[in-house]
Design a protein that fits this description.
This protein has eight helices and five strands. It is mainly alpha-helical and 210 residues long. It has one domain (3-207). The strands form two sheets. It has a three-stranded antiparallel β-sheet. The chain has a two-stranded antiparallel sheet with strand order 1-2. Helix 1 (3-14) packs antiparallel against helix 2 and helix 4 (79-86) crosses helix 8 (173-207). The model is unreliable at 155-164 (pLDDT under 50).
Length: 210
């Protein structure tokens, strides 16, 4: 299982009944993909730019697709640009893939509420592996989950990106660069939503004659 798949499963296990913003999760899932590509040797970072490496992403169709989508000519894409490009609709893509693989079910009782409908992880080795990884406190999964406001009790100090808190460090410079980009993109997305809400409220007031 990949970090992106583990993150999606943990969201459904830890936050049943919660309404999840697809945009937030799509950015975090794109960041999870990039971290796995770095760890697999499929890419390296030159500063904050993504340099394709010599190794394949190995084994996961969506991760392979992510690797194949990278530009192979300079100037290389920045991590921030990657998150916004790759992340478009990505959480929905992962939900579909997990369901197609038989890793999700749509029970009658309440589960996490994505806008695509209520789903929860099926009892499977993939779910158990994700939960074990979460229980171990593995720092990458914990940091990505914290970015979308899912926290372990013993890592409650890891605040979500919207709070302006420092980005957690994993001790790996390349991974930390990706995490910083994820937290920054989530902050930017929240600011964009707030601006749109203010603009919409102002527009509504004009029509009400206020």
């Amino acid at each position: 299982m990949t970090t992106a798949r583990d993150l999606m499963i943990i969201a459904m296990v830890m936050e049943p009944g919660r309404s999840v913003e697809h945009g937030d999760f799509s950015l975090a899932v794109a960041g999870a993909e990039m971290i796995d590509l770095i760890r697999a040797g499929a890419v390296t970072l030159d500063g904050d730019h993504i340099v394709p490496g010599g190794r394949p992403a190995a084994g996961d169709a969506l991760l392979d697709q992510a690797a194949q989508s990278l530009g192979h000519e300079q100037p290389y894409e920045s991590v921030d640009d990657w998150l916004w490009r790759r992340g478009r609709g990505l959480s929905t893509t992962y939900l579909g893939a997990l369901e197609a693989d038989g890793l999700l079910s749509r029970p009658r009782r309440r589960g996490v509420t994505f806008r695509a409908g209520r789903v929860e992880p099926a009892d499977s080795p993939a779910r158990r592996d994700a939960v074990d990884r979460w229980a171990s406190g593995e720092p990458v999964l914990a940091a990505l989950a914290a970015a979308v406001r899912i926290r372990r009790e013993d890592t409650a100090d890891l605040a979500g990106s919207a709070s302006g808190a420092d980005v957690p460090s994993t001790g790996d410079d390349a991974v930390d660069t990706v995490l910083a980009a994820v937290y920054g993109a989530l902050t930017e997305l929240q600011a964009l939503r707030q601006r749109r809400a203010i603009e919409q409220a102002a527009f509504d007031n004009i029509w009400r004659g206020q």
